[in-house]
Amino acid sequence: MFGLSMKSAVVVALALSAASAHAEDSYPARQIDIVVPFAPGGTSDLSIRYLADKWKSCLGQPVVIVNKPGAGSAVGAKYVARAKPDGYTLLVASETSLVTVPILQADVGYSYRDFTYLFTYSKGSVVFAARSDAPWKTIAVFLDAARKSPQPMSYASYGTGTIGQIAMELLLRATKTKVNHVPFKSSPEAGAALLGKHVELAVPSLIGPLAKNPDVRLLATSSSERVAFAPDLPTLKDLGYNVSLNYFNVLVGPKGLPDHVVTKILDCHKQAYAKDKKDIDEALGRFELVPFTLDGASTMKEMGERSVLFKEMLSPKS
Fold it and tell me: Which end of the chain is more exposed for a tag (fewer CB within 10 A), N or C?
């Protein structure tokens, strides 16, 4: 009886091993959906569509981009956090969905820890913009004017908890300056508020439209280094401020994603880069993104550190 049980156990173990090997060899066996938690047309949406097209030949299956906007990106992020961790439902994410939303929406139902991090594929930054007829031609002059102004001055960002707000608040903290924050729903709306003279400064994430507008003067970028698509635009560090902050574009899946899934997708990304690096880098530049790779573990660590920073920056001031 004992011998029969041992034999059965061996058969079961071999069967499970074979099934596991088959699952690894066959992934992906069907369409992969990548959720974008924003409306079509933004940098996350455009960049992941471009990259997914590069991955298709390696993956051997269709890769479909699914836009699920809503609740500041919470709808799409929560959908993926609760999906089956089989590699067929992924999310292109940033600090907004991974860090900011769980801080600002206490009942959102997930945190940055509820995902498997595959890799970061690019980073972006915000720009500090004034009207061309404003008396401040530099960040230093603007900050000095804000400190001396009898009435509080204000700046527009593309939302509470965005990199635009955090970068500006870090600069204000570093320079001991007070400027009121006026949040909008998008970078174009923040730019419109600036042009309409409703605020003295705007901190949007899109440089191109403002750079072409003669009524706007770009003062600096929050990027850690100058960007190829705006090489003459100084960073805050160039100007002597110890402040830099980029946002990341990250590919994640539900928590518990199998190692072979992560490896397969990462390998396909590496293959695409080895084949078309120049084209990919140029395309990301057109989307105002800087090519940047960070592995999954390091990306999750970075999001954890940003969660601590953002909680501090967004907490009510006493």
Answer: C
